Fold this sequence. Notes:
It is built from six helices and ten strands. With about 250 residues, it is of the alpha+beta class. The chain has a single domain, classed as 4-Layer Sandwich (Glutamine Phosphoribosylpyrophosphate, subunit 1, domain 1).
Amino acid sequence: MYENNSGYDRGVSTFSPEGRIFQVEYAMKAIELGSCVVGVTTREGIVLGVEKRITSSLMEKDSVEKVVEIDSHVAAASSGLTADARTLIEHARVECQNHRFTFDEPLRIESLAQSICDLMMSFGEGGEENKSKMSRPFGVSVLLAGWDHRRGAPALFCCDPSGTYVGYKAHAIGNGADTARSTLEESWSETLTLAEAEKEVAVILRRTMEESVSADNVEIIRVTPTGGYAPVSEEELKALLEHAEAAAAAVAP
């Protein structure tokens, strides 16, 4: 009866008779087309691995930022529209700095996720009274990885265009996320070490990426309670990717 969505998918604040907001669902589809992002928590810290899509040999690979430092204790990686991600990242940085300035302590990761989702929910047909409101949902998901100093434990949260945030022990977003999540469900355990998590992230990216993995199109970072945000070195990254290639060759028929 409602095969044609026109009339319900034009407005960002209009529910269909089935109770769906199609514009939000379309935004979620944009994330599925984005690059793969994998996050894994351990007792020692958190690992984030991202795919960097280098579409031309003329591109400066350092200009493609898929994982960034928000504060010394938290990093963010995104999948979807890069411009939308940049808006959310700048908002997150301001929130963290304001909290440090006011309370002299790092902002909790869950509080940061809630603040980001509050911004992601601020879309609709805004009038003159609210020109800052987005005219559409954000077409990006953000994976926040950090260390919660209050709990003394790692924290991993995913924020999506519906304004929902959920905490995870391990998670993946973007292209190939279903395959990545299935692998994480089988491999994650409470006893996982930081080094093992880095290897697992490299293996998953090798499995999900369409292009051959290399130091140019893969980035892996760690967040620890003592070292904070720290990208793995180029030598460490090459070793991790070599391990991923060896693991793939070992299971090949």
